[in-house]
Specification:
- The complex is a heterodimer of chains A (500) and B (476).
- Chain A is mainly beta and 500 residues long.
- Chain A has a domain of 155 residues.
- Chain A contains one helix and 25 strands.
- The two termini of chain A are 41 Å apart.
- With 476 residues, chain B is mainly alpha-helical.
- Chain B has a domain of 130 residues.
- Chain B contains 25 helices and no strands.
- Chain B is elongated.
- Chain B starts with a helix and ends in a 7-residue tail after the last helix.
- Classes of the chains: A mainly beta (500), B mainly alpha (476).
- Chains A and B meet through strand 1, strand 4, strand 5, strand 6 and strand 8 of A and helix 12, helix 15, helix 16, helix 17 and helix 18 of B.
Chain lengths: 500, 476
């Protein structure tokens, strides 16, 4: 038995034993394990002596074996990217999500959410599987009264400023009769969008400049919630513990106003105190009824970079977008959807005399869902977009058959045309797939997937290729519960073929 | 003539004994076919008169005629004991009507008006009501009248659940508001001075088991407890219907405050478990309700559905509403569901993105269709995959060749970089850019553009400045 296999077995065994350990308490444990068999094909950087490069009639350069090359200025060698070798991977990810309560102290609970990932194949190391064991959340919470609560351990702060993990403590104070709530937290922050500290090698595969220590994070939120108005304000700062300088300092405000039934006005904005500008901001108005609904909004997107990088000094510019979407259910079981967005970047104030760069773009999509019978659901979608750097167009469709409440079978297909700006690469992709989900019981669900990819990379040089592959996947979800919690929860998300 | 009428009456009485039982379940005897044979009811139904003999004849008497010669042989046996909830004896009714023609007395109940001899029905209800002075339709009779003819359900021991299921539904049950406060609950209270606290009109058809199919608060409701338990009452099925107020467009938004103000209204139909169907992360919201258990109904089974605000594109725009009311989200969603997307796993098939998104993601990423870094760490997620695929500059050595469709791309990349800097950083590290954009070495091209506030950044974190400027930070 290999060390990796031993680790997998040990973790699974520990997870299975946890319910027994908590028999005298209330507990809920969800084990979720998934494995895929995938192949992928990247690029291989290569070079050729400039003396071996041919100049084509249109002025472009090509190696003697037909690859488009880039020679830079006064270089002895020219570079090019040839198609990489086909690689196989079999990533396995298992997640254990445990909540314990009834620990003898009213209001005390424990939460653990961990993930183990590994690549079972020998060919390649699937990205994101190091470190193998990752803790998403692990905290103790005490909330005996509705007016206050505390939490300590690894946890996630959610809000307008993003999804932010940290190791530390949080205090919540509420005035339930007024809808007011305030939160304060302090701890050592994790890398954004990751489960590891910023100092982890996994968060820095290319060896960027990084702080020597995890940043100190402190923040506060205040919210006021009524049936008509919801307001939430946030403040967060991160400090480099080595230098005591800020790595970020931001505030944000979000709100929802419901002036009338079915109408809501939603908006929010971030302000980067450290860099002195407004970040991502949006406002939208929504009207929704059962037969139809519509949304119109404006948003401004601006990326956020921490001050331990120099990227902020490169002055990334935001874009402003107006968008609208609507759906209508003209007859029972049928829904038609449309969405469109047009956006334009602020002036980048960068001269590009030799290259034409788009500064605006648009996106549009439409689709229809039809539930023929309670057991049959059909989806069809179309999307197209064009903008700086890239464009794409494609169809997607799915037919879902649910013969019983416990079985779901889906056949889906997609087509995609994907021309990219800045490089020769016009890919055409067609996929066909089957999915099957079986709920053997309220506590056990099994899913199997198989998808065939046919890809055609069209280029005017030797780097063009065609290849196909079959991706297989399997997933098992096990739920253990003391019975004090509800076992058979419906999914929170609705699957749909289109998405971003 | 009198004998014929009596026989007919007794035949009708026999039918009355099987009142409310579907005809196909009884052994068929066609009275009309035999109307020339029998002059009276009593010959066959002696028990209706004396109360001692059998109410129905044995099959042996049939052979008198059906001997194979006069008529073909038949096989007939009397049906089983009557499935009835009637508070009724034939003897009593015969005696009450004895001063009149006995055959006519049978026909008074069993023969519709203006019908011929040996037209035998079950008891003709309207004739029963007429005799007993009830001036309304049968199922609209006042509470004081029901017990005159009918036993309560637990007393009617011979009825089966199927019999109970075949009871006619009173018109009152279709009235608006019948299921709501002031409806059937108020009507179920017996009039003052009644023997039972439950109105006989309810107890005739229903027992406690029936009430428990809907009433979560059955153990705490005296009126329900006053009814005897009887599983046969489940022969009548009842669908729990949502009150009209639940259809209001803002019901989901407001039901929390409503439940806090009047929890008793909710716990008639809802257990703690029905709250947990959605509020799986906030079990404390259900503490005012009863937990499911013996003696009380399962309550309204909640089918979790998306609020109207969660239209088809909601997942794309949920950031702002989620940020403005995280507590509201937590009403239905547990943190794990957020983490499924916001901390994506490597092996799972995509859930937020479509199946082919990997091939499509350059388009979305270049123009930042959504904020990728909300869920993905650009280094741990993007760079590690791009590195595996050979899509990164080798450790700070800026190479040419990838942007091959644009001759001299590097000379004109400024606009593209400022518009999609996050995309650049998925393949490039700072050292790539410092090859040219550094005041200390390289070519000294300034990267600073619109909105760059050097003074502010220097105050907040001068270390960033030293990467390019060393200790000679301009303005420092």
């Amino acid at each position: 038995m290999t060390p990796r296999t031993t680790r997998v077995c040990a973790i699974l065994a520990a997870a299975l034993l946890l319910p027994a350990a908590g028999q005298a308490q209330g507990y809920r444990l969800r084990l979720d394990a998934g494995v895929q068999s995938v192949r992928f094909r990247g690029y291989q950087l290569d070079s050729v002596a400039i003396s071996d490069v041919d100049t084509l009639p249109d002025g472009s350069l090509e190696s003697s074996d037909g690859f488009a090359v880039d020679c830079g200025s006064a270089a002895a060698f020219c570079s090019f990217f040839r198609p990489g070798a086909e690689q196989s991977s079999t990533p396995l990810v298992a997640t254990a999500d445990l909540t314990l309560w009834g620990l003898g102290i009213r209001g005390l609970s424990v939460r653990l959410n961990g993930r183990y990932g590994t690549d079972l194949s020998d060919d390649a190391e699937w990205p994101g599987t190091e470190p193998g064991l990752q803790l998403l959340e692990g905290f103790v919470e005490y909330a005996a009264a509705p007016t206050w609560g505390v939490r300590a351990g690894r946890q996630v702060q959610t809000g307008r400023l993003g999804y932010y993990g940290y190791d530390g403590g949080r205090v919540v104070v509420r005035a339930p009769s007024t809808g007011l709530e305030a939160t304060g937290y302090l701890g050592l922050g994790l890398a954004r969008g990751a489960l590891v500290p910023i100092t982890s090698a996994a968060a820095n595969p290319l060896g960027e400049y990084r702080p020597a220590e995890s940043q100190l994070v402190a923040g506060a939120t205040a919210s006021w919630i009524t049936p008509v108005v919801e307001l939430n304000g946030e403040y967060q700062r991160e400090v480099d513990r080595t230098s005591d300088y800020f790595t970020s300092e931001r505030i944000a405000l979000s709100g929802t106003l419901r002036p009338a039934a079915r109408v809501s006005l939603v908006g929010g904005s971030e302000y980067d105190i450290a860099q002195g500008f407004f970040g991502t901001t949006d406002v939208s108005v929504r009207y929704t009824t059962q037969p139809w609904g519509a949304v119109a909004g404006w948003r401004r997107y601006r990326p956020h970079f921490d001050l331990w990088t120099i990227w902020g000094a490169f002055s990334p510019v935001p874009y402003n977008a107006g968008y609208a979407s609507a759906f209508v259910n003209p007859i029972r079981g049928l829904q038609l959807r449309l969405r469109g967005e047009r956006y334009q970047f602020d002036d980048a104030e960068a001269e590009s005399p030799l290259v034409t760069i788009e500064s605006e773009g648009w996106r549009a999509s439409g689709g229809a869902s039809y539930r023929l019978t309670p057991a049959w659901l059909m989806d069809l979608g179309y999307h197209k977009q064009f903008g700086p750097g890239a464009a794409s167009e494609g169809w997607d469709g799915a037919v879902t058959f649910t013969p019983t409440a416990r079985v779901t079978l889906t056949a889906h297909g997609n087509s995609l045309d994907r021309p990219l700006e800045y490089r020769y690469d016009e890919a055409r992709l067609v996929t066909l797939g089957l999915e099957g989900e079986f709920a053997a019981s309220d506590n056990l669900r099994i899913a199997l997937t198989a998808t065939r990819y046919d890809e055609d990379r069209e280029r005017p040089d030797a780097a063009s290729f065609e290849w196909d592959q079959l991706r297989l996947g399997a997933r098992v979800v096990l739920l253990f519960s003391s019975g004090a919690d509800r076992a058979a929860l419906p999914p929170a998300r609705v699957r749909r073929p289109a998405g971003r | 003539m009198r004998l014929r009428q009596l026989l007919a009456a007794i035949g009708l009485a026999a039918a009355l004994g099987t009142a409310d039982l579907p005809a196909q379940e009884r052994d068929a005897f066609d009275h009309g076919e035999h109307k020339k044979v029998f002059p009276s009811c009593i010959a066959c139904h002696q028990g209706a008169q004396d109360g001692v003999s059998a109410l129905l004849p044995s099959g042996e008497g049939c052979a008198t005629c059906h001997d194979g010669t006069i008529e073909g042989r038949v096989s007939w046996t009397p049906p089983d004991a009557a499935h009835s909830n009637l508070r009724f004896t034939h003897g009593g009714h015969i005696r009450a009507l004895a001063t009149r023609d006995s055959t006519a007395a049978c026909g008074a109940c069993h023969t519709p008006a203006d019908s011929g001899w040996m037209t035998v029905n079950r008891a003709v209800t309207v004739q029963c009501l007429d005799c007993h002075g009830v001036k309304t339709a049968h199922t609209a009779a006042p509470d004081t009248a029901c017990a005159t003819c009918h036993l309560s359900l637990p007393e009617a021991r011979l009825l089966t659940a199927a019999d109970v299921g075949a009871f006619p539904e009173p018109e009152s049950h279709q009235a608006a508001g019948f299921l709501e406060r002031g409806g059937h609950g108020a009507q179920a209270k017996a009039p003052p001075g009644a023997a039972s606290s439950v109105a006989p009109s309810c107890a005739t058809c229903h027992a406690r088991d029936f009430c428990i199919t809907c009433h979560v608060d059955a153990p705490e409701t005296a009126l329900i407890q006053a009814l005897a338990p009887d599983a046969r009452s489940l022969g009548i099925s009842s669908d729990l219907k949502a009150p009209a107020g639940h259809a209001a467009s803002d019901f989901l938004t407001r039901h929390g405050s409503q439940s806090r103000k009047a929890p008793a209204d909710c716990r008639t139909c809802h257990t703690q478990e029905s709250c947990a169907a959605c509020h799986n992360g906030q079990r404390e919201v259900a503490t005012a309700l009863y937990a499911a258990g013996p003696g009380r109904g399962a309550g309204a089974v909640i089918v979790r559905r998306r609020p109207e605000s969660h239209a088809s594109d909601f997942s794309d725009v949920h950031a702002s509403p989620a940020a403005s009311r995280p507590a509201t989200c937590e009403g239905c969603h547990v943190r794990t569901q957020c983490l499924d997307c916001h901390r994506p796993t490597a092996s799972r098939t995509p859930e937020y993105h479509p199946e082919t998104f990997l091939a499509r993601h350059p388009t979305a990423a270049y123009a930042r269709e959504t904020d990728c870094s909300d869920c993905h760490n650009p280094a741990a997620f993007c760079q590690s995959c791009h590195e595996q695929s050979g899509l990164v500059s080798p450790r700070g050595q800026l190479t040419h060749g990838f942007h091959d469709a644009k001759n001299a791309f590097s000379l004109g990349h400024g606009q593209a970089a400022r518009q999609s800097l996050e995309t650049c950083t998925s393949c490039h590290v700072e050292r790539d850019c410092l090859t040219c954009h550094s005041a200390l070495f390289g070519r000294g091209f300034s990267p600073h553009g619109p909105g760059f506030d050097a003074e502010r950044l220097r105050k907040k974190n001068p270390q960033m400045c030293t990467v390019c400027h060393g200790t000679a930070i301009p303005g420092g």
